[in-house]
Design a protein that fits this description.
Layout (H helix, E strand, L loop, with lengths): L2 E2 L12 H8 L18 H5 L11 E2 L20 H4 L8 E4 L20 E4 L2 H8 L11 E2 L4 H4 L7 E6 L23 E7 L3 E4 L10 E2 L4 E7 L6 E2 L18 E8 L9 H6 L1 E3 L10 E12 L5 E11 L1
Parallel strand pairs: 4-5, 4-15
Antiparallel strand pairs: 1-2, 3-6, 6-12, 7-10, 7-14, 8-12, 9-10, 11-12, 13-14, 14-15
Amino acid sequence: MAILENDSTIVDAILTDEGRRRLSEGIFEIAKFSLHDDEIVYSKAQQASADSKFQTTPIFEATTDNVKALKYKLLTLTPDASTTSGEYTHLNVTRLVTQKGTQNGTPQATGNNAGYYVIISTEATYNDHYQGASSVDVPSGFLPGYSKIEISRKEDTAIKVDHGINDDGADSPLTYEEELPIELEETQFRVKLDHRLGRLATPDGGELKPIFIDDDYIATYMITTGMGDFTEVISKSSQAGSPILGARGPRLKLYVFAAPNINTSSDGVWDALGRDITSFFTNGTTTAKAIDAAMIVEGETTNVNITIPLRFVKNA
């Protein structure tokens, strides 16, 4: 990593993994580009004088790591004056839907697993703890990821993501009863996940194929609102139906299951990428092997994005 000088204008172009692949095949052609503000700390704008805003912000050298770079895309919006008084006062945010009841969400785990969705990665692990006479209830946030059929069988095993205007109507006319404007509505989502660890199931129990896998084993999936039960329209009858307070776009539903690399009795990948956690389970084999990962969701229209922590586990 390097830090570039900020006293001159520098264009530092580095090809991504996909760009290098296309260049090697002779099909590389720049058709579009986007600008991002990943490195800008906007609180500095409020602290500094108008003449020195951002001038002391370090600019990092470009990176090919598609998980870390280019997450916050700059937008040019031309809103409909008839619905928003000619300008937007808010932009989209993205939220996990974790509340049951009116939101119909899937809670995350608690305790030592707080903030994670825990993916139970082998059937033997699931049966040891949650089947039979000495079984216990499956904890909140623990998902039956040992099977793409099981993970897609129930509504409450989907990881759900909402996006929209997070305002209760006090400062924005785009309330929960209103339609999210088309130019703020996400109809295509990119989902990125380590292909060695997890895969995405289709709502009918099949497997969704990624559009490509880079040389860091990160698979990218493209999901659109036309792909069956991956998305749903949120009811406008209640503000409490979503963690988004104002106008909402389509809800995204993701079914994550363990890849064959880790859905196995072998410990090779588990020992290479994970760790043992003692007293993880409350019954049966109490020590677990665990691998932490992140699933990234990005919108194609406004580039709303969220990073979702995952913890793959099996019996040690």
